[in-house]
Structures are given as C-alpha cells and as structure tokens.
Amino acid sequence: MGSTNRSSPGSRLREALQQEKPLQVAGVIHAYAALLAESAGFRALYVSGAGVANASYGLPDLGITTQGDVLEDVRRISSAVELPLLVDADTGFGSAFNIARTVREMIRAGAAGIHIEDQVAAKRCGHRPNKAIVSPAEMVDRIRSAADAKIDADFVLMARTDALASEGMEGAVARAQAYVEAGADMIFLEAAGSLEEYKAFTDVVKVPVLANVTEFGRTPLFTVDELAAAGVSLVLYPLSAFRAMNAAALKVYQTIREQGSQASVLGEMQTREELYRYLGYYDYERKLDALFAARNSEEE
Ligand SMILES: C[C@](O)(C(=O)O)[C@H](CC(=O)O)C(=O)O
Question: Is 261 inside any structural domain?
C-alpha cells in the first residue's frame, strides 16, 4: 500500500464524508454535467457504469464496456472538476492482475475511489431480476487484489454486494464482513427495499455504507433524513440528471421534426449565457482579448 497523501482525491472523498451524512453523491454523465453538479453544491461525484455504457457507447449496462472505456470518461471528468469522483468499476474488469491494474489506472486517472461488485462478469443492473453472483471466496480475492494494488492509501475501495436478492440479509451481511476483512473501506448495499434493511445492515457492518437510490429501481426514493436515521453514510443518485436530460433531448428532437422549428421548446433550453457561465467562458474570453490587445500594441 502506498503512503498517505493528504491532497489526493481519495483523501478529499474521505473529508467529504466527514462534512455531510449521508454524503450525497451525484452521477455525472460527462464533464459538463460535473460542472453543473459542482455548482449545485455536491461534495462528491460519481461515474456510473450504466452511464458510460448508455451515454458514451449507446450500449446496455451488461458488462460490455471495458476498463479503458470507463477510464476515458473518468479522465475527462476528473480534469474538469476538483470534486472527488467515485467510479463504478463493475466486477473489476477481469481477474486479479486486471483488477490490480484497474485500481492503479483509476488512481492515475484522478478517481477518488471505485466500487467493485460480486456479480459474475456477465453482470446486470443491480435492480434487475436474475442476477448471478460469484462465491464469497472469489469476491474476497477480487477485493484483496484491489487492496494490494493501491498506490495511494487514501484511495477508497468500496465493495458492492448484490447478494441481498439471492441470499437475503444474512448472506449480504456475512459477505460484507468478509469483504471488509479483505480490505474494503466501504460497502455498497445494492437494491435494498426498506429502511429497516439498511438499519439492520448498518448496525452490524462497521464501515461507511452506501445506498443507491436510482430511480425506477427496487429502492424507494428515501430522503437523506430517512437514510441518516438508518445509519447510511453515502447516498447515490447515479443516473438522475441523465434520465432528465434524455427526456428533455427527446422532446426537443421530436418537436423540431414535428414542428419544423425549435421555437416552442426554446423556453426549456439553457441559454447561451447559462451554458457559458458554468464553463467560465468569459474568463477565457478576457484572457484571449488581453493576448490580442498585447499583440496589437506590440505591432503598433
Ligand atoms: C449503480 C449502477 O451500477 C450504475 O451503473 O450506475 C446501476 C444504476 C441503474 O441501473 O439504475 C445499478 O446497477 O444500480
């Protein structure tokens, strides 16, 4: 394990956890969405595996996208914002050596942490039926390989368990405890259906626990206060803004085709002024103007 680096993204994620409980983690589909989430006041952001597959590649979230595909989005997003990024690393993208490489490359790409899950490589969305999971021993190997590969001790290794659906609370707790023992810093309890389940889990799992309140899934849209009372430390909104963007985009495309003009949906659009605001556009423009002015005065 590498030495502790106070200013690393991992340490910033750990600091954010001290500032807010549960820490709200916003899914950001691209760098611009990250700028918007930052301006809305989030302290931590998320790169969703479904988001990379759906938005960047037009593919379903079924374990089709690769380590490199996710890393590319992570690099783009981490270079646009200072906020710590939690990244969905699916099943780790292969066996022990691949998982070790995933950890190191994610750190180099600017991620603050990743989660690795206990589904089989041919994974599914955690909120869909018929998920298959690997044995606890196989998942423990994944976590050990990931923990050994940390080149920054503060990098957050989160183990996700999808066991609730097939093994119930007892199985999920036993697995989580084994994953923590193997080096997981935090646990992602996927697809819990009630606050009682979160409470029963957090009562015995003594590391920070994440709740995924993805819409239209198995988990009701619990509020931060409800989740705090159930002992949850992080709450994830992986695709909320993406779903809203998609609905808005489809409406705009259909309107333009049907009406031959975008006039009736103009009021729903971000203006040029608003678009530029989050980019810091005018600062760039001022610098450009100053450069031109300096060059002009030299030429005079
Ligand atoms: C968290 C998740 O893995 C994701 O890729 O964002 C998905 C989200 C979703 O499909 O709604 C999940 O499996 O929960």
Answer: no
